[in-house]
Amino acid sequence: MALIAVKDLYLPKRLEHVSLQLDDGELLGLIGPNGSGKSSLLNVLGNVINAEGELTMQGEPIHALTDLERARQIGLLPQEAAVFWSLLVEDVVALGRLPWRDNDSAMINEAIDKAGIRQLLGRSVDRLSGGERARVWLARLLAGAPRVLLVDEPVASLDIHHQLSVMDVLKQHAIPGQGVIVALHDLALAARFCDRLCLLHEGKVVAIGETAEVLTEDILFRTYGIKVEVDLERSPPLVMPA
Amino acid sequence: MANALTPILLFGLVLTGWLSLGLGSVPVSVTAGLLDWLQGIQSREAMIVAEVRLPRTLLAVAVGASLGLSGAALQGLLRNPLADPSLVGASQGAALGAAAVFYFGLFAAAGSLSVALGGLLGAMLALLLMLGLAGTGTPSLMIMAGLAIATVTSALLAVVLNFAPNPYAMQELVFWLLGSVAERGLDSLYILLPSLLIGGSLVWLQRNLLAGLSLGDKVAQSMGLNVIAGSRLTVLGAAILVGAAVSVAGNIGFVGLLIPHLIRPLVSHRPDRLLVPSALAGGMLVCVADMLVRLLPPGQELKLGVLTSLLGAPLFVWLVFKERRKWL
Q1: Most buried of the four, A162, B44, B47, B94, by CB within 10 Å?
Q2: pLDDT tens-digit profile of B119-166?
């Protein structure tokens, strides 16, 4: 059964009747040009903005859940993640327990280990590098132990080493009973890590399915307007502008 | 450190309060005075300690606590260390309400409470106008609306001063605006304490929102926190706190801005953990400032609000330098 299913989602000027589903244990990649509606879709799923349409979680309408119940099931890491005070790393991670209104240290420690940030404890987040910070945001998200992670452009400003480590953490969350939707600009990373891809363009789903079905030179040319070289047989897969 | 902070501040506050009861031109035993008063004995000590110094001390503590707490709440809500209680327009509304009482002699039936009553009504009116103007807007829109209302009320206050019926009325009004907790009487506590309780509870109940907002509006919303309703309740709570404090004691500057600033590093910058310590430290600061006012040589009294500004301004300059070093 689908973990999350979206049918006919409509948000004026941003989402034009989008339908898709996240399968159990899946890492679903959301790709598409700037302004294609990736962030809007994640924000709707993450309960930040409301849109018309049908939203179900494991077959049940999501609106039957209270905001707090929903937050315990679905966690969102927005693109412009930031911290406004000089908080300590462990305090930021602990904020991930807010949907549960507790301070479960076992869950917090588990999240710290999953994100590999134990060596950063005791430091203030505004003294960290971009790559370190990205993993602290991830730990905050994991501390709430949501079944579904919604992650918007987590690797946009990271070096290649940190890109891979962040994607690894997301991949590890995509196990039975859980799932991840991640918005990505790097198509090669998407091809390498995601189980399925959903290509958005101007608020519409252009293609959805296995990597090979979505990342074709023809579809990419029609969406991005440039020629893209695709070699999915290669390991790791190669997708780059020709 | 963070865990020990609240008990330490609480102890400091009680100690300051005790010293304040013992301080004055006539040396008396605080213990004897309080015991006599509690037993209903009309001794000289009881009169001085319980009827003169106790109201003044409690007022100073409650005013400081209200200002410190509202500052901490507003800075957390707006995620801006420069947010100040006067930003929501409540201080200016209270000042205008009180000025109207001086000018038109309103609420004469309320006797000594008339000024405080006028101030509280003014603060409430300013708040309602601000919330009406901001609509269901974001916190930053609320601040803009608050500033707009503050500007209008300040202008109206200037008009009131301009057309004061006589120099004495103007002098009385200006002195009141400078801020003081002297000669207010226990009656003022009937306005201040319930406001501290109601406003404080409103703010305290939103502490999770303040914590969540430190990760941004979107994350807070996605974590199941009601950002819009919670923000309005926080502003409402802060306005009640500030409105009551200003209506009773006039303008006591810098406490709401400075106290959260000083406490923040001691609570690892957590906006939710900042609330109670800021209230305690605010109470302590205003109580100490009031003791200094009483220690100064008699004659022309230095007003409490003037003193807190005089003390607060250099401290603020020091904070700027400290912040600057971080960027060098």
Answers
A1: B94
A2: 888 888 887 888 788 876 676 787 788 889 999 999 998 888 888 777
From chain B, the residues in CB contact with A84 under 8 A are 79, 213-216
For chains A and B, CB pairs below 8 A equal 77
Residues of B in Cβ contact (< 8 Å) with A99: 223-224
- Do β-strands A15-23 and A2-11 pair in parallel, antiparallel, or remain unpaired? antiparallel
| Domain B2-327 in CATH 3.40.50.1820 | no
ipTM: 0.93
Q: Which structural domains are found in chain A, ordered by start?
A: 2-211 (3.40.50.300)
Burial class (CB in 10 A: 0-12, 13-18, 19+), A132: middle
* Contacts of B96 by beta carbon, 8 Å cutoff, 6+ apart: B122, B126, B153, B156, B157, B160
Q: Biggest alpha carbon distance in chain B? A: 64
Q: Amino acid identity of B37?
A: W
Whether B224 and chain A come into contact, CB under 8 Å, resolves to yes
Residues A236, A74 contacting (CB under 8 angstroms): no
